[in-house]
Amino acid sequence: MLFCKGKLLRIDQTPDAESSWLVAAAHATPACEAQLRALALRLADFGKLRSPDQFNSQGDKFFAIKARCGLRAYGWYHSEQRGVFMISHFIYKTWPKLATEDKTRMLSNRKHHDPNHP
Amino acid sequence: MIRTILSENAMNTSTKTWLSASDFNQRLFAEESLIIDAAEEIWAVMERKGITKTDLAALLGTSKANITQLLNGSRNMTLRTLADISHSLGQKVAIKLSEYRQADEDWEPSGHVIYVARSFRPGSFEYMAANDGVEWQEAM
């Protein structure tokens, strides 16, 4: 199921995203969940988010959508499905630095679901 | 009471399902959306003018940390603060309240519109953000 759909983008999710959401969202307050969903819908409507605190490149052409409470989504702009931003997985964490395991997980999901991504 | 903001025939999404679950969820979403919309509009002006958070903090006589907290929503931005920020950026705030609309494809999220602009030029980013009946493609 799509995460959300806006005027410019569809925010789709990998199976890993759907399963990881259940774990990550369990830690989040309703307001925190609302913030991440609102960020995702703003991204879907405008194609990008300007706030570097809440949407930034993590290198290797993938991005993090960050709710201030610690709920995050890692994802990338799909190279073959036009107008799709694909969420690799969700996590809940309170430290700012990208974990190696999250980078590995993100790149693995992208390789599987968007193998021709440059 | 859940407002009529969700289209019966629209594509189902995780967020739509969540919004449908309760009026409480919709209210939280409306709060967070407004905070994000305001911050994003401020960021748009800052980008256009080449103003950093440090610059804005200096203009307002406050700390960069305070600006960070205001822009990411961890500190509540009062209308007075919004006016101060806008004034510091040489802008005025335009506020418009409008009814939730039944959209063809999905929930139309911008029931409220708040944008920071000096002028509303057709085709500008601000004009698109206004979402006042202008189709995205036309605005592009």
General description of the model:
The complex is a heterodimer of chains A (118) and B (140). Chain A contains three helices and six strands; from the N terminus they run ββααββββα. Chain A has helices at residues 15-27, 30-46, 100-113, and strands at 4-5, 10-13, 55-57, 63-66, 71-77, 84-92. With 140 residues, chain B is mainly α. Chain B contains seven helices and two strands, in the order αααααββαα. Chain B has helices at residues 14-21, 23-49, 53-60, 64-72, 79-88, 125-130, 136-139, and strands at residues 92-97, 112-117. Chain B is elongated and about 45 Å long. The N and C termini of chain B lie far apart (36 Å). Classes of the chains: A alpha+beta (118), B mainly alpha (140). At the A-B interface, strand 1 and helix 2 of A face helix 1, helix 2 and helix 4 of B.
Q: Which secondary-structure class do the elements of chain A indicate? A: alpha+beta
Spatial strand sequence of the major β-sheet of chain A = 1-2-6-5-4-3
Which two chains touch over the largest interface? A-B, 29 and 34 residues
User: Roughly what fraction of the amino acids of chain A lie in strands?
Assistant: 15-25%
What is the helix fraction of residues of chain B, given as a range? 40-55%
Q: Specify the biggest β-sheet of chain B.
A: 2 strands, antiparallel
Oligomeric description of these chains: heterodimer
Average pLDDT confidence of chain B is: 74
Strand order of the largest sheet of chain B: 1-2
Number of extended strands of chain B? 2
Secondary-structure map:
The complex is a heterodimer of chains A (118) and B (140).
Chain A: E1 4-5, E2 10-13, H1 15-27, H2 30-46, E3 55-57, E4 63-66, E5 71-77, E6 84-92, H3 100-113
Chain B: H1 14-21, H2 23-49, H3 53-60, H4 64-72, H5 79-88, E1 92-97, E2 112-117, H6 125-130, H7 136-139
Antiparallel strand pairs in B: 1-2
